[in-house]
Amino acid sequence: MESLAKAMKSMESSMPERDRRLFDEILLMGRIHASQMDLSKLSPETAFLISVIMEMMDRIDHGQ
Fold first, then answer.
1. Which terminus of the chain, N or C, has fewer Cβ atoms within 10 Å?
2. pLDDT above 70 coverage of the chain, percent
């Protein structure tokens, strides 16, 4: 998952400041469940997206 996050981070330099902050938050959400996802048979990209979706659902459930 870290190699995917590093590859995605290279996109950041061309983004406006506001987008960079959002992008950093998305990368953080993708890493939160990295240890569980590393044990799965999912591709890193799929695992990253599932982790982001899980964190977004949690924020929605808690009104953030």
1. C
2. 98
